[in-house]
Amino acid sequence: MSCTCLARLTRCSGLVQKTVVPLLFQQGNFPELTHFDRKLFGQSRRQYSSSRFDPDSSGRPTTWDSFGIWDDRIDEPILLPPSIRYGKIIPNVNLMKVGCASLIGQRKENEDRFQVSQMTDNIHYFAVFDGHGGSEAADFCEKYMEKFIKSFLAEEDNLETVLSKAFLEIDKAFAKHLHFFPNGPGLNSGSTATVALLRDGIELVVASVGDSRAMLCRKGKAVKLTVDHTPERKDEKERIKRSGGFITWNSLGQPNVNGRLAMTRSIGDLDLKKMGVIAEPETKRILLHHVHDSFLALTTDGVNFIMNSQEICSIIGQCHDPKEAAQRISDQALHYGSEDNSTIIVVPFGAWGKHRSSDTHFSFSRSFVSSGRWA
């Protein structure tokens, strides 16, 4: 059955927002449950309705498992309008199943912040912020980033453009905020920011500044969605030098901007803005393939420094659910010797649990921690 016919059927049937209908997809030759329910659970823990299809009056919902598509790996309804629009099956991403964990490590305080929320009817919001020089910048991002994104969504449909504008504006707003506290503790405060927006359950857009990362697991392999902004990158180092800044290396061989900042882009760090440290993010847009994509992981450098992307991907793939996965990764980072705060968000997609790997992956940086060279 073509998408045009499906759309005509939808109109003629007078379907409303919460209608459930059997849908026959030509490619798979099997009936699928289609369901569209815009709201799930938000940060306020308020529950929204989620009706299911019950063909045999057994009281048990018909899910993906009932049709034997992906064994017992997903138990979510299908989003009807996006599935028709994109011509492929799109399951709902349940925010209640997203895994989050944040551990303080060996630091005096946890300067990491994270957020998971239903931003609009069809857009999910995921973000991690790793503060440095105090938690003021990370706190500011946690409180206002979503609001800035919403304001630009009202006038712009391109999510990459929306995120770029929001990052630049929140950096300006933080500078204005500190202007009223000239002797406050936040003048040297800064934060990484890695934000992911998921629209219609299929369009994933990621924006990032700093060294917090976003990674997609596709067919069991890690696909990096962000690249760290450090002085080791030639393009970043050249911008710093053109702006009058300089690069130094500490005793561990790590490059720093003007001897104090390990990254070349951030929110805040106002004293280094004239030295080429910018808040403009790099963005990436990708369409999900739920038959292949297992999850999205957002991590701070307390995890990244000690575990490589494929190792994170493999460990998460062995876990029963995203909540267990997030806790295991953060615990593992500390067990391996990470002294920084370790924060992770794990967002499950259609192929959750489908691609499991028993391969052993090793992070080279962990050997330095084990030998005490990073002490």
TrEMBL record:
Its cofactor is Mn(2+). GO terms for biological process: brain development; digestive tract development; heart development; liver development; negative regulation of apoptotic process; pancreas development; regulation of intracellular signal transduction. PANTHER family: PROTEIN PHOSPHATASE (PTHR47992). The keyword Endoplasmic reticulum does not apply. InterPro entries: PP2C (IPR015655), PP2C_BS (IPR000222), PPM-type-like_dom_sf (IPR036457), PPM-type_phosphatase-like_dom (IPR001932). GO terms for cellular component: mitochondrial matrix; mitochondrion. Belongs to the PP2C family. It holds the Pfam family PP2C. It comes from the Eukaryota. It comes from Oryzias latipes (Japanese rice fish). The lineage of its organism: Eukaryota, Metazoa, Chordata, Craniata, Vertebrata. It is found in: Mitochondrion matrix. It is an enzyme of class 3 (hydrolase). GO terms for molecular function: metal ion binding; protein serine/threonine phosphatase activity. Keywords: Hydrolase, Manganese, Metal-binding, Mitochondrion, Protein phosphatase, Transit peptide. Signal peptide: none annotated. This is protein-serine/threonine phosphatase. SUPFAM superfamilies: PP2C-like. Residues 97-349 form the PPM-type phosphatase domain. Its EC number is 3.1.3.16.
